[in-house]
Amino acid sequence: MISLATRRFFRARFPAGADRAFAVRRMLTAFLLDWELDHVVDSAVLATDELFANAVEHGSSGPADTVTVTAGVEPTGDELRIEVADGSPARPVFRTPAETDEAGRGLAIVDTLASDWGTEPPDGDGAGKKVWFTLALGRTR
Q: What does the pLDDT read at residue 79?
């Protein structure tokens, strides 16, 4: 068992392309399994995948841009926090799509899976935003 005092954190930057989503999912899964957080892998990967897709589609001008994914366990060991940052200052819009709409459910999926979520300015003085979510790490879920 990993001690809660052990720092569990990673950050990776990816080209803003839909073809990079597999790499994001694979890397996040590997870290979560290494951290012995098997019980939140599916929810964390699905929610991160949705935020990555939104960042690529709405927060970038093409693959020359990057999307940064950060994951870490809060110091208390109670929550996993994942952030997806892109270069656009436009905040995400929570929509309620019609049943026949092919898109527009990403934030609703994140909202359903996550304990909490929101947006923040980027780290430093740069342009853009971070969209984040947390997952409770209680072992009963």
A: 95
